[in-house]
Write a structure and sequence with these properties.
Blueprint lengths: L1 E10 L10 E2 L3 E3 L4 E3 L11 E6 L5 E5 L2 E4 L4 E3 L5 E3 L8 E8 L5 E12 L6 E6 L5 E6 L9 E6 L2 E6 L3 E4 L1 H4 L4 E8 L2 E4 L3 E2 L5 E2 L3 E3 L4 E3 L11 E6 L5 E5 L2 E4 L4 E3 L5 E3 L8 E8 L5 E12 L6 E6 L5 E6 L10 E5 L2 E6 L3 E4 L1 H5 L4 E4 L6 E3 L4 E3 L11 E6 L5 E5 L2 E4 L4 E3 L5 E3 L8 E8 L5 E12 L6 E6 L5 E6 L9 E6 L2 E6 L3 E4 L1 H4 L4 E8 L2 E4 L3 E2 L8 E10 L2
Parallel strand pairs: 2-4, 3-11, 20-22, 21-29, 36-44
Antiparallel strand pairs: 1-53, 4-9, 5-6, 5-10, 6-7, 8-9, 10-11, 12-13, 13-16, 14-15, 14-17, 17-18, 17-19, 22-27, 23-24, 23-28, 24-25, 26-27, 28-29, 30-31, 31-34, 32-33, 32-35, 37-42, 38-39, 38-43, 39-40, 41-42, 43-44, 45-46, 46-49, 47-48, 47-50, 50-51, 50-52
């Protein structure tokens, strides 16, 4: 006798079906025809069957072998099962069945739930380039309101991001690689992919502070982008004008052009472009529909300074930070001794005693005015406008968010806040900024006779140093992995995260997680993350992800026998 064995491997949960009508799964595509099965033990044709939709007034029932329904497309099979001819979004919800015997006794009750989804729309990739050459790609699905949509992003056809976020961020380095990008939107029952696009960067959107020679655009608010609108841009500080009327554009200033959407483009900004630009939008019938302004300030590149030394007869020395003929009034000077800051102010000189000279220390300097974003511990100055620098003026600086006040009256200075001082020219100096210094500082300038001659404000934001993160790994049952960029107890809401694969940027956004497919896990690449805020950044150690996929197989043993 010979025993023959065959092994049949079947992935759990999957079977081959050969039926004409499908049973309703929990997740259904709009338009599907399917059946919610009534449990077989209640299939007796003499039973009274009633199905009701918990979320609406839809009812179908069979009594005395006669069926009634108040909902088109909802029918009942001979065995009491509920049939949908074509499901729609409104059919989502719980269906309750009640089974009563011919003598009126309830013999069964239960429920089944379905969720209906619309077909996923085909997305398009929209590109937005930032001032520093980076790019944000958005997977756009038009007017779709489907909250279940998730988005997968592909670079040259390879999956790089898979989550609910419709955006992916590219560094300037990635943009310059000229790779193709596409996105795919999917819900539990359908998916569709966009056309591929190649990202290229040419022009940045303007910032308020610009370097001479920058090419940039001042965006017109999107609500005024109609091509039929007449647009006029005028420079408040000169006669520079550009306007589009009846779809024809005229400009009196070389290098100043207008985009199709009405935005103002500078081919290459210069110092004379500093100032306020006013836009006026008029509809085709001549009605003014919008007016506004945008301000820019153009700076020349900081020149490389040299240290000039002047020794005196008594062995002292005066060091001068020399920038030759540069007339940039925004420059401030920081002096460093052996790499450590020793002076930070507008004064281009530092004086050394003969003792200091004999220490043979190295000296260097840099220039620093308080920017809007500052690292905790920075020493900097908020400049008072130069026209109010008269030493006889009374100056008062007040912090809008606290009781911090410093003022100079009759050439005497009083402060209620340690580390806050007033320079000779009335500027506000921070010895070392802290988080509590964040906010708006209001200055008031009063002449010697008590007349207020000016008032204004400056805003700063102080950030703590970005903490060093660690990568935490969570493997899933199917061999995928979720990596978390962990920063312990840090509560800094400004932190964003960059993820790197083998040292190459793959994701750049606020999301602290990245997801890897089992295929990516098996590639044994190294991953690291970097946390950053506007003034600092810190990178984790690299880790190599290793997960064991848990794939369960059902094994059926079949025995056949025959006689020789």
């Amino acid at each position: 006798m010979i025993f023959q064995y065959s092994l049949l491997l079947i992935l759990c949960g999957f079977t081959a079906l050969s039926v004409s009508t499908e049973t309703c799964g929990k997740d259904l595509l709009e338009g599907t025809s399917c059946i919610i099965k009534l449990p077989e033990k209640y299939n007796d044709k003499s039973n009274y069957i009633k199905w009701t939709h918990f979320s609406s007034d839809a009812v179908i029932e069979r009594r005395n072998k006669k069926t009634k329904s108040n909902t088109p497309g909802l029918t009942m099979e001979e065995d009491g099962s509920l049939r949908f001819q074509s499901v729609s979004l409104k059919d989502t919800g719980t269906y309750i069945y009640t089974v009563t015997s011919s003598d009126g006794t309830e013999i069964g009750k239960g429920e089944a739930e379905i969720k209906v989804y619309e077909k996923v729309p085909k997305p398009t990739v929209k590109i937005n380039c930032t001032a520093d050459g980076n790019a944000a790609l958005t997977c756009d699905v038009g007017n779709s309101k489907d909250p279940s949509l998730t988005v997968s992003w592909y670079e040259d056809g390879k999956l790089i991001q898979n989550e609910i976020n419709p955006q992916v961020f590219l560094s300037s380095t990635q943009v310059q690689e000229n790779k193709t990008y596409s996105c795919e939107t999917h819900n539990p029952v359908s998916r569709v992919k966009s056309e591929s696009v190649t990202v290229s960067f040419s022009t940045e959107t303007y910032g308020k502070d610009l370097l001479v020679g920058t090419s940039c655009i001042i965006k017109l608010p999107e609500k005024y982008n109609g091509k039929s609108n007449d647009i006029k841009w005028a420079h408040f500080s000169s006669d520079a004008i550009i306007e589009r009327r009846n779809k024809k554009t005229k400009s009196n200033t070389p290098g100043l052009t207008m985009e199709e959407d009405g935005s103002l483009r500078f081919q290459s900004v210069s110092l004379k472009d500093t100032g306020t630009y006013i836009y006026t939008v008029t509809s085709s019938d001549g009605t003014e529909i919008g007016k506004g302004e945008a301000e820019i300030k153009v700076y020349e590149k900081v020149p490389k300074p040299t240290v000039k030394i002047s020794c005196t007869a008594d062995g002292n020395a005066a060091l001068t930070c020399d920038v030759e003929n540069n007339k940039d009034l925004s420059l401030t000077v920081s002096w460093c001794k052996d790499g450590k800051l020793i002076q930070n102010e507008i004064n281009p000189q530092v004086f050394l005693s003969s003792t200091q000279v004999q220490e043979n220390k190295t000296y260097s300097f840099s220039t620093e005015t308080c920017g809007k974003d500052l690292l905790e511990g920075t020493s900097c100055i908020i400049k008072l406008p130069e026209k109010y620098n008269d030493k006889s003026n009374d100056i008062k600086w007040a912090h809008f968010s606290s009781d911090a006040v410093i003022q100079r009256k009759n050439k005497k200075t009083k402060s209620n806040t340690p580390g806050l001082t007033v320079e000779e020219d009335g500027s506000l100096r921070f010895q070392s900024v802290s988080l509590k210094d964040t906010g708006t500082y209001i200055y008031t300038v009063t002449s010697s006779d008590g007349t207020e001659i000016d008032k204004g404000e400056v805003e700063i934001k102080v950030y703590e140093k970005a903490p060093k993160p660690t990568v935490k790994i969570n493997c899933t049952a199917d061999g995928n992995a979720a990596l978390t960029c962990d920063v312990g107890n840090s509560k800094d809401p400004s932190l964003t995260v960059s993820w790197y694969e083998d040292g190459k940027l793959i994701q750049n956004e606020i999301n602290h997680q990245v997801f890897l497919s089992s295929t990516q896990v098996q590639e044994n690449k190294s991953y690291s993350c970097e946390k950053r805020n506007p003034v600092s950044r810190n990178k984790s150690e690299s880790v190599t992800v290793s997960c064991i996929a848990k794939i369960f197989l059902c094994l059926r043993h079949k025995r056949d026998s025959s006689t020789l």
